[in-house]
Amino acid sequence: MSESTSRAESAERGRGERAKRVRMTPAQRRETILTAATGVFAETGYQRTRVSAIAARVGVSEPVVFQNFGSKAALYRAVVDRAVSGVCETLTEAVEAGRPVTDLLAGFLEPGHMERFHARGSLGFLFADAFTLTAEPELREAVHAAHRRFADTFAELVRHGQRAGDLRQDLDPQVAAWWLLSLLHARTFRAAVMPEEAGLEGQLVAMTLDTLTRR
Fold first, then answer.
1. Which residues does 53 contact at the CB level (< 8 Å), separation at least 6?
2. Which among 14, 59, 94, 187 could disulfide-bond with 99, CB atoms 3.0 to 4.6 Å apart, if both were Cys?
3. Which CATH number does 72-215 carry?
4. What pTM does this model have?
5. Where are the domains of the chain?
6. Domain HTH tetR-type: where (predicted)?
7. Does residue 113 contact residue 119 with C-beta atoms inside 8 Å?
């Protein structure tokens, strides 16, 4: 292959790639940035993340990210909102599809699942990081809203379990929801300091389910 032919083919590929980028709608561009930002924030946390790293993962310049979201804080708020919505919708859809609440909670709280869910790069790590940012003026309300969304979802799961006869009728759904949320949020603390973590974590889950279901 001649050098001129190689250059021509490279130029053609470049035009094709540029054409693909041009054809991307604003909504698609924002979604692409959100997906990349979710991964980067989940790997490094809000404070350590640079917008340049997100832009590089998307394959655009920093100004493109700012044009779409305005600021790093605004992008983070959008990421957290989308991630929380995704988890809450997954839980709700599972119950509406007929999965028992006790089975759903057992699977969600299972130690192995919790370990994967909170690993760096996962949504659990993203949520744990978000919950440390309540002192950030630009993020405080978004973090509080995330807490409330999770609590409301868990409360509705408890109500569903009560209607099905799987959970205790004397439970206050909101109290139970915040108890479950606190249990999840303290997972990072337990992993760092609790001795015999694997065994005790399983016992905590068993005790939680027993308390929710004991007549």
1. 40, 44
2. 94
3. 1.10.357.10
4. 0.83
5. 1-70, 72-215
6. 27-87
7. no
Structure tokens at 12: 């053609």
Give the Cα separation of 145 and 98 in Å (integer).
Answer: 28
Instruction: Convert the pLDDT of each residue in 47-79 to its tens digit.
Output: 999 999 999 999 999 999 999 999 999 999 999
Tell me the average pLDDT across 1-24.
Answer: 55
Query: Which tokens is 77 given?
Result: 């708020």
The burial of 104, by beta-carbon neighbours within 10 Å (0-12 exposed, 13-18 middle, 19 or more buried), is given as: middle
Quick one: what percent of the chain has pLDDT higher than 70?
88
CA pair distance 58, 52, nearest whole angstrom: 10
- What per-residue confidence (pLDDT) applies to 159? 97
**CATH node for 1-70:** 1.10.10.60
